[in-house]
Amino acid sequence: MNVKNYKQKLLDELYKPYIKCMQCPLGGLGRTKVVFGAGNPDSKIMFIGEAPGAKEDELGLPFVGRSGQLLTRALNKLNVQRDDVFITNIVKCRPPNNRLPLPIESTTCKSILLFNQIKIIRPKIICTLGSHALNSLYDKVFQITKCRGKQHEFDGIVVIPTYHPAYVLRNPVSGKHFLEDIKCALELAEMIK
Ligand code: SF4
After folding, report:
1. What is the average per-residue pLDDT within 54-67?
2. What is the pLDDT of residues 12-60, one digit of tens each?
3. What is the whole-number distance in angstroms between the Cα of residue 36 and the centre of ligand 1?
4. Helix, strand or coil, per DSSP, at residue 154
C-alpha cells in the first residue's frame, strides 16, 4: 500500500466512530452530515476553515459553497487543483444559522478530529482561513489583518494565516492579499515555484 492510500485508511479509521458524533452541542443542533474534510491525504498543505455552511452540511464536503468556489478559483489560478490539497474545518458540524462555533465546540472537535488529522497528514504547511480558524488552532486571539501572510508555527508545522474566502467575497479589495497568501503558502509547501 502506498503512503497516500495508507494515510487515507488511517483517516477513514479515525472518522468511523464519529459519523454520527454527539461529542459536542453541534451534534444535536440540526446538522445533516459530519463534514470531516476532503482532498489528498498525503498533501503538503492543509487548509483549515472555521465550520461547514449549508451547502457543506448538505453534501458532506468542505468548502463547496460560494466561499469554496473562491478558494478553488484561487488554487486554479496558481495551477493547483483542489484534489491536490487537503481542506477541512476546525469543527466538522454546521453551527445553526452559521453562528461562530462556541469555545467548547471548537475545543472538543479539534481534540478528537483536527489534531489527529494533522498527525496523520503531517503537511509541510497549514493555511488557516479566517480569524476564527487561526484563533481556535492556537487558543489565542490574533489580529488577522496584522498576522496574515506571515509565518507562524504549530507542532513543528509552518502556519500561514489568511482571510476566510467569505470575507473576501464581502470585501473584494482583500482578494489581492488572499491570493498572495495562498501563493506564499503553496510556494513554502513546494507545490508551485
Ligand atoms: S462538531 Fe465535532 S465534536 Fe461536535 S458533534 Fe460535530 S464532529 Fe462531534
Report:
1. 96
2. 999 999 999 999 999 999 999 999 999 999 999 999 999 999 999 999 9
3. 10
4. strand
pLDDT at 1 over 90: no
Query: Are 101 and 60 in contact, with CB atoms under 8 Å apart?
Result: no
Those residues whose C-beta lies under 8 Å from the C-beta of residue 90, and which sit 6 or more positions away, are 48, 49, 50, 51, 101, 106, 109, 110, 114, 132, 133, 136, 137
Domain ranges of the chain: 3-188
User: 3-188 has which CATH code?
Assistant: 3.40.470.10
Residue 91 burial class via C-beta count within 10 angstroms: exposed 0-12, middle 13-18, buried 19 and up: buried
Asked whether the beta carbons of 153 and 70 are under 8 A apart, the reply is: no
Query: Taking CB atoms and a 6 Å cutoff, what residues make up the pocket around ligand 1?
Result: 18, 21-24, 26-27, 34, 91-93, 105, 108-109, 112-113
- The string of pLDDT tens digits covering residues 82-137 is 999 999 999 999 999 989 999 999 999 999 999 999 999 999 999 999 999 999 99
Q: Which residues contact 108 (CB under 8 A, 6 or more apart)?
A: 23, 24
Q: Which of 184, 62, 163 is nearest to 114 (CA)?
A: 62
CB atoms within 10 A of CB 58: 15
Q: Whose CA is nearest to atom 6 of ligand 1?
A: 93
